[in-house]
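Pasting two entries for a bug report.
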Amino acid sequence: MSEKERLQKAIDATIIAGYQLSTEAFDYLCHNCKETDPLSIINMVLHEINTLAEKPFFIEKSFLENTVKQLIQTRQAAQTVQNKKNQNINQTTSNSEKTEEQKTKQLPFKLPIIVDDNAFYPYAKYIPSELKILEDATDKLTSNGTLEEYTILFQDRFKRIEKILRQRIDVRAATSIQEAIKAQPKTKLKIICMLTEKRDSKQQTILSVEDLNSNANVLVPSTAPDEVKKKALQILPDQVICLAVIKSKSDLFLAEDIIFPDVGQKILQKTQEPVYAVLTSDIHVGSTKFNKDAFKKFILWLKGKYGTPEMKEIAGRVKYLLIAGDIVDGVGIYPGQQFELTIRDVHKQYNFAIKYLEKIPKYIEIIFAPGNHDASRKALPQPAIPQDYLTAIENKNNIHSVGSPCLLNIHGINVLMEHGRSLDDIIAVVPGMSHDHPEKSMRLLLQGRHLAPVYGGRTMLSPENRDYLVIDKVPDILHAGHVHVLGYCNYRGVIVVNSGGWQEQTDYMKKLDLVPTPGKVPVINLMTMEITVLDFKTEN
């Protein structure tokens, strides 16, 4: 690394820690960078400042000079001790027998350039946390599971997504199904509706739809444009959409276009500080397939004790760790699970999981939500994991348990985190979707502005008086797991990430022909929104 690069790193470290160098201090570093390593000096200065009750805003030249003096004094003291050892050696060894190493140790002292490209500096430790939980339904759930509550749930979904749709210029004039039925034949209309059934036959599709008052059938004919046919294949049951239709002589409508609520193109939101967020999920502590060796490397990396210099540079800037569910493998989740468990008590599974999390540096904020394997109810939305299972984190201020879904803000970036069980339903219903590319299925959730639209599939839905799965606010990052396969993309300015996991292929995964990607971790630079994937299954 060149002198200029080391000087720049020293300046960056100062700014990240929240301080500035005075003009004299900056000149001092520049003039002495050949004799001293500026980053080493700054690291020592920052360590010293951290012990002060009143911390300065500017770092003055005198502070740097005193630090250098301390370095010299320390080295001189060590040199004195070494000289005494050398004198003892000289008494028994003639000058002609002195080794080259002994002669070097007797050279006059000079402050060395401290160069260690493998050194670890926790920049994030000196950056204040900016974490806010914006939306979490944990304390708002009131369902008793009645039929009336399901009616209220779907009515709320319809009204709120209808509101989102009507924000589009091309949908504002949409009419109700009841009014559309009264229209004259060949009249072009737009209706906002919920899909109740989809039937495919002879290259055409019939959509059964309804709104709050009426229902109708819409035909997507074989002569429809390919783009419309493609959209018809992507519509999910119970999804709220807008249909551009032509009224026929009967009550049947012909589809001209299908309009999803979707998200508008947005500008990437970025932080002003180079801090990183690690996204992961599906740890499955307690499973025989949990790759604990890779996970231990991951924790060592966060502590700056594992990885290449580039990896350690990233680790030093990690401020947030977001875990999207399935912390443990659970008990009784599927038939025969007891034969694939190393820990058969769910309380003990959580205790082991927390022991892992406790080893992560305290300046890193850890936020985790439940998944379908966790000790929370299975129906969405899931409340946070009950405290009875998490007694070990009661006094851990940097570990936070939230519900699923949860909208949180980290350093000004909105993250919508949900485990992702509904991806199974999408993969089962929509042609072209697969476990190999979970980000494509997640993109459909954004298009429909709902995290789990399908009712009656693998994803259980709780009939709350509000549908907490509607995506009202478009996030900057959409984070899910469950599929155990890493996948990510940028969809209209939203960073979409399925973070894979830490579990090797199980027998159930083999039946699905699902090949997981354990140990691969996406890390987001919140200042650039760029993603770096680190692989902890490979040697570094």
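Entry 2 (this is the one that rendered wrong in the viewer):
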Amino acid sequence: MFKNIKNDLPASVVVFFVALPLCLGIALASGAPLFSGVIAGIIGGIVVGALSGSKIGVSGPAAGLAAIVLTAIGTLGGYENFLVAVVLGGIIQIIFGILKAGVIGYYFPSSVIKGMLTGIGIIIILKQIPHFFGYDPDPEGDFAFFQVDGKNTFGEILDTVNNISPGATLIAIIGLSVLLLWDKILSKKGKFFQIIQGPLVAVVLGIVYFVLTKDNEVLEISAKHLVSVPIPEDTASFLAQFSFPNFKAITNPQVWITGFTIALVASLETLLCVEATDKLDPEKNVTPTNRELLAQGTGNIISGLIGGLPITQVIVRSSANIQSGGKTKLAAIIHGFLLLISVILIPTLLNKIPLSVLAAILFIVGFKLAKPALFVKMFKLGWKQFVPFIATVLGIVFTDLLIGIALGLAVGIVVILLKNYQNSHFLHIEDKSNGKHKIKMTLAEEVTFFNKGAILKELDSLPVDTYLELNILNTRYLDNDIIEILEDFSIKAKDRNIDIKLVSKRGVVENPSSYIEFFNERPKSDISLS
């Protein structure tokens, strides 16, 4: 594991800088104690990182659960009661893993997963624009279109025009310039520039800038535009930041409902992220999904027991890890230890980091997820790939992650149905012979009720005086709905002087008297019936 430390250590530092404001922001958006987000980040890095089978996935508090947490804390009567639901959610996730429910992640189309990555990239950029210019009414980590401050993504951007902070904007531009210089030029100049990552340099410059300009009325950065980690006065006050579940609330049915909701949503987000992360991975590792559910469940149990938010694998942190060159799970684990050590030893220093510099880092992460070239590539693949892709992107940008994915999946299913409709059979029309049209219809390998419309339309359009050859030699599965269509058509065929020749592995049958009897009598090895 340690042979890749030269890659994993710099990557873990970048992930740490990305994760820290998101941990705090998601806690704020969830209506939970600020430190609860940091706890979830630490457990997600150290515990889940160690147990997971993913080499480059990073876990922590999830923006997609913020609305659930916010509602549940009020419904359940306090944060300590909510923590019981987090623990129960973790137990249920472990049960999901034992039951091998991780296979669900493989049933999402590639176009939807690519749309998810692109949509998240766009929403990262849009959400960071206000922070880049020093306008922070909406907390970091609120990725929904309709925000917790009552505004929406684009309304927030418009309001930024009248609330630009010169100091925050200046250091953000400097930070972004450093990041681009490092990424495009300096990283290719030598090992030093590969080990010392651009984001670390940008953050250090941000801290130096804050210290040097704090007495300058024009260029200073106000406290509200800095990272805000709780600062304990001593060991006792640090330990007091941990909360513990009130297990007396376990008899409340709402606690169980919330626990199951957390397990379901967290598992789905994790499986989607695993699938997306594996696609981004340059080495194309395949993450064992059932093991991932076991790891996430264990992480949520521990996080709930010590006062942390629910945990999932998170694409923002995972993609930052990949883009920064992370090779093994060590990067995720080290990032967890960096969170732990920093909030204990240097919280005052952390609180001098401008959010606008972190916004510049996230700009790069977002752009690499949503490159314009990907839109062109998906368009060239044809509408069957492009439509679910663009539906997912728009759904994520204008609603939230889960609704966007559900929309993309729904569109993908419609595309599949249309594809099945079109690919049920092949039709070959020959010239008239002996006074009849000769038409050969070859059915597909698998014909289901999805194909009813296409086949029914084709049969009804056959002209009078037709000789139809129905070829099922290569058909392995034939739905009973199709057999009933053929049975009904045989009656119409007599009235329209249509002769039917059925070609199968058992031979050729002219005008079968009953298709239902014919297919039901066929050997099981010949064709599979519904």
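Dev reply: Rendering is fixed now. As a check, the viewer should reflect this: The mean pLDDT is 88.
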